[in-house]
């Protein structure tokens, strides 16, 4: 991980910057008034979480308390302009009344953590030209690191620079325009936006729901292994044994990318089943407690998911009360994040690359986030798939209500990845599951029995904790499918045997995907195949099916309706508005022709913002259908018309109102190039 500025700089500099920017809005007000001070604090807080998404993970009370103290220091100085030359110090941070727990939260979620640098795809294969382009635009102190010796992908960092997301996107668009660079984007630590700034709050029930809590569960979920019975796993294992084939994934290695694991009675951490010594901590390898081991230090905090990795790996390898979907497979865990929504594409790509290089036949990952404009993640996934690795990723959990587009997250949305959606024990779609045309298969995700992690279980204990509880999430559907992928490989002799059968390793994951698409499912009445894949996984059909012919294999091109058709439609909507008002589209309306940004670059930023701010989809979508949703198209806040009415009678005024509302939001979170293009 690149070196960062001091904690004081990462906390205080962004807050000082936003305060100084908004203070002119309160010119003429009585700045000594407590009421006015409170308004300034709230305005600064909204600006902070708009532009520095890492700060969203901090408790609002903590953010506003720090902002208030810094505001007091600013208003107490006679010349506020002098503050632009002030450098935050450790002493200034320590002067705040912060507990050890709050300092630990700030270390992870300081506003200045939001942008780590830039991700870059180079033109051709000339690292020196890429470095020169970056240094010419950003300065000599920026460092360029090649992310993979075989790929023309880079990371640009400067530990002394703290950028907001709009500033970083603006610089990315300028990097795009250089000859040496094909694509550039900010390396953002993404945290979901809260509702007050146009986002929706994710449902984290999967990390807190317990069998003894107040949450209710369907009566059909009381039996601990109900999810395996629903997908016919016991019958599949029996079929392998009767056929004289290895069962339960024996001989197959699975890579698990998650928050790390803890010791638990359900987890055979013995370097025979769970290979702790082969795993790595890719998130914070210098952690003072766990070091480079793939263990979960169980850090508590907003948007953090302590124990998540323990729960998901228990779905694969539970041996006591639980029964893992591939309990005889070998599993290599990797700690890549403390949260399922702290999304950084480089970290996910690094996890996939390390799992691939460690010899994993299957990779399971129960996390994801927005699409990446640069190609590093895509190319790492493609290379692993080309080498015969089956990659299973969670489609995602609903962000907000069912009236907001339930986006399938990346990397599950990639062509070479098995995207897993969720159902319940009644064979119904789980209401919290993401859905869309990218889904490959559905598996049980609601009220799933899994191991409950206990804080402090970082060494073997006698006896180890053994609690199991129920939880919700496509996080649990994914290792179920990955475990059955391992069982399928084992049944057919493993990845090498299948590679020999087909003549190339690349056909192995394609064959698995083809069986899911055509044979290995059960389709309940009324199943929505456009959004949830062909049906619910049937493991027995998967293992009984003959291997598909080589001639029918190939990756199916996934349709990303919201990020492709819809993003392009937004610019079409702007152009049509310009045509209505003044004839042919202006240069600015043609995707920022005068702003120094390419249409592809602006599409990348807008796709990120649509993922981050679902309300933008509502405001920019008066007549465009979001195909990834099975609910009525969302209405604007000024119109109560039905979807059918809107699609047949949207007038120019409705276009204007939607775009005006969206422009207000975009001005607070988008680069100047994008706001120019859509203004």
Gyration radius from CA atoms, angstroms = 25 Å
CATH architecture label of the largest domain: 3-Layer(aba) Sandwich
Give the class-level CATH name of the largest domain.
Alpha Beta
Based on secondary structure, the structural category is alpha/beta
The percent range for helix content is 25-40%
CATH 4th-level superfamily of the largest domain: Peptidase S8/S53 domain
Strand order of the largest sheet: 6-7-5-8-9-10-11
Number of helices: 24
Question: What is the residue-averaged pLDDT?
Answer: 83
**Which parts are unreliable, with pLDDT below 50 for 5 consecutive residues or more?**
77-87, 201-214, 400-405, 577-595, 622-650
Main sheet properties: 7 strands, parallel
What share of residues are in beta strands? 5-15%
Domain unit count: 4
What is the CATH topology of the largest domain? Rossmann fold
**Tally of strands:** 15
Q: State the shape.
A: globular
Q: Termini distance?
A: 38 Å
Overall description:
The protein is of the alpha/beta class. The chain has four domains: about 5-110; about 115-190, Ribosomal protein S6/Translation elongation factor EF1B (Alpha-Beta Plaits), CATH 3.30.70.60; about 225-550, Peptidase S8/S53 domain (Rossmann fold); about 565-679, no CATH class. The protein has 24 helices and 15 strands. A seven-stranded parallel β-sheet has the order 6-7-5-8-9-10-11, with helices on both faces. Strands 2-3-1-4 form a four-stranded antiparallel β-sheet. The chain has a two-stranded antiparallel sheet with strand order 12-13. Helix 11 (about 310-315) packs parallel to helix 14. The two termini are about 40 Å apart. The model is unreliable at about 75-85, about 200-215, about 400-405, about 575-595 and about 620-650 (pLDDT under 50).
């Amino acid at each position: 991980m690149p070196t960062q500025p001091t904690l004081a700089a990462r906390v205080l500099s962004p807050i000082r910057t936003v305060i100084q920017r908004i203070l002119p809005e309160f010119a003429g007000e009585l700045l000594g008034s407590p009421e006015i001070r409170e308004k300034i604090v709230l305005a600064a807080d909204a600006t902070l979480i708009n532009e520095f998404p890492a700060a969203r993970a901090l408790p609002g009370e903590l953010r506003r308390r720090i902002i208030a103290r810094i505001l007091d220091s600013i208003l107490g100085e006679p010349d506020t302009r002098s503050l632009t030359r002030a450098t935050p110090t450790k002493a200034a941070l320590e002067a705040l009344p912060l507990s050890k727990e709050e300092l630990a939260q700030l270390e992870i979620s300081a506003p200045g953590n939001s942008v780590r640098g830039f991700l870059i795809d180079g033109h051709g294969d000339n690292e020196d030209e890429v470095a020169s382009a970056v240094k010419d635009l950003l300065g000599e102190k920026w460092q360029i690191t090649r992310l993979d010796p075989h790929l023309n992908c880079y990371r640009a960092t400067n530990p002394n620079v703290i950028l907001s997301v709009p500033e970083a996107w603006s610089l990315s668009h300028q990097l795009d325009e250089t000859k040496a660079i094909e694509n550039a984007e900010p390396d953002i630590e993404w945290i979901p936006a809260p509702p007050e700034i146009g986002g929706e709050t994710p449902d984290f029930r999967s990390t807190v729901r317990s069998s003894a809590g107040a949450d209710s569960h369907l009566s059909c979920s009381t039996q601990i292994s109900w999810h395996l019975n629903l997908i016919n796993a016991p019958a599949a294992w029996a079929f392998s044994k009767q056929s004289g084939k290895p069962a339960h994934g024996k001989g197959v290695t699975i890579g698990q990318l998650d928050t790390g694991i803890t010791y638990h009675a359900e987890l055979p951490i013995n370097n025979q089943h769970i290979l702790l010594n082969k795993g790595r901590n890719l998130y914070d390898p210098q952690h003072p407690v766990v070091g480079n081991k793939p263990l979960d230090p169980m850090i508590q905090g907003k948007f953090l998911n302590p124990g998540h990795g323990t729960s998901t790996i228990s779905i694969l390898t539970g041996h006591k009360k639980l029964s893992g979907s591939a309990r005889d497979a070998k599993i290599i865990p990797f700690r890549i994040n403390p949260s399922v929504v702290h999304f950084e594409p480089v970290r996910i790509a690094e996890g996939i690359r390390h799992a691939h290089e460690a010899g994993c036949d299957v990779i399971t990952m129960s996390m994801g986030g927005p699409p990446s404009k640069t190609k590093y993640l895509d190319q790492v996934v493609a290379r692993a798939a080309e080498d015969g690795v089956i990659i299973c990723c969670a489609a995602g959990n609903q962000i907000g209500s069912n009236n907001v587009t339930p986006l399938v997250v990346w990397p599950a949305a990639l062509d070479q990845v098995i995207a897993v959606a969720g159902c319940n024990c009644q064979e119904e779609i789980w209401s919290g599951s993401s859905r869309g045309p990218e889904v490959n298969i559905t598996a049980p995700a609601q009220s799933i029995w899994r191991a409950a992690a206990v804080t402090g279980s970082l060494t073997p204990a006698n006896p180890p904790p053994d609690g199991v509880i129920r939880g919700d999430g496509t996080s649990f559907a994914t290792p179920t499918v990955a475990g059955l992928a391992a069982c399928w490989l084992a049944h057919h002799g493993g990845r090498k045997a299948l590679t020999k059968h087909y003549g190339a390793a690349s056909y192995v994951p394609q064959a698995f995907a083809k069986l899911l698409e055509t044979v290995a499912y059960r389709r309940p009445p009324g199943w929505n195949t456009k959004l949830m894949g062909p049906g619910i996984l049937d493991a027995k059909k998967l293992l009984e099916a003959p291997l598909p012919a080589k001639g029918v294999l190939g990756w199916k091109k996934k349709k990303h309706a919201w990020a492709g058709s819809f993003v392009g439609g937004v610019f079409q909507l702007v152009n049509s508005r310009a045509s209505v008002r003044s004839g042919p589209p202006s240069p600015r309306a043609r995707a920022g022709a005068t702003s120094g940004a390419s249409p592809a670059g602006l599409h990348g930023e807008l796709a990120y913002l649509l993922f981050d701010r679902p309300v933008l989809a509502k405001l920019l979508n008066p007549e465009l259908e979001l195909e990834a949703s099975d609910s009525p198209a969302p209405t604007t806040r000024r119109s109560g018309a039905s979807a059918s009415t809107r699609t047949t009678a949207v007038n120019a005024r409705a276009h204007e109102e939607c775009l005006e509302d969206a422009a207000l939001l975009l001005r607070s979170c988008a680069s100047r190039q994008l706001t120019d293009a859509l203004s």
